[in-house]
Amino acid sequence: MRVKLLGFDIDTYDFESAVEYAKGISGQVVTINPEMMSNPDMIDIVNSSELVIPESIGVQLGLMIIGHKVRRIPGIEFARRMLEECPNVALVGAKPEIIKKASENLKNEIKNLNIVYCQDGYFQDEQRVLNDLAQSNARLVLCALGSPKQELFIQKAKQMMPNTLFIGVGGSFDVWAGAVQRAPKFWQAIGMEWLYRTIKEPQRFKRIFPTLPLFVLRVFREKIKGV
Predict the structure, then answer these.
(1) What is the pLDDT of residues 101-144, one digit of tens each?
(2) Could you give the number of structural domains in the chain?
(3) Cα(130)–Cα(47) distance, rounded to whole angstroms?
(4) What's the CA gap between 150 and 153, in Å, rounded?
(5) Which domain holds residue 127?
């Protein structure tokens, strides 16, 4: 089922149901967060996507406020699981050394994983990358260009690859390469991985605040208007 939050359509699958659904479709998967939802230019992209999963605790809270009990699905965990389900994979994004190391680590970790195409995110000729990607015949493309660049890139790529599943994965390649460590399991379990990362990387503070509290305030205002 899809529900609407601040004008954005969001799917309400749990993790396993989302994986099962994604295995049978092609098109764009968006892992949505409050930061993305603060950009009105993203509404059409998100609402035309084939699967929109609530990636953050902020979106989970927003959905709860309007009456939907939905568990968040961390994008990095969803993408990692899909690598096991769709072995013919293309990777696009991140620094050259990062994507190289991430590719090596993933191939060591996942049996029968076939990475058919790799391209770092520092390319100038987008059309050349789109053409190369289309020729790879990848079933799954993970795109780590940051938002909204990765979502815009996927919008173009999916027109050329109608049988392919695309997921925007942000900084996941950095984690898989071992360059960035995820928060400890406890922080992940309570949905506070964002807070842990902000403590560890104070420069993220300006990005998180005031976006998160303003997001929650907007949701309350929407709920009050709908009452």
Answers:
(1) 999 999 999 999 999 999 999 999 999 999 999 999 999 999 99
(2) 1
(3) 23
(4) 5
(5) 2-222
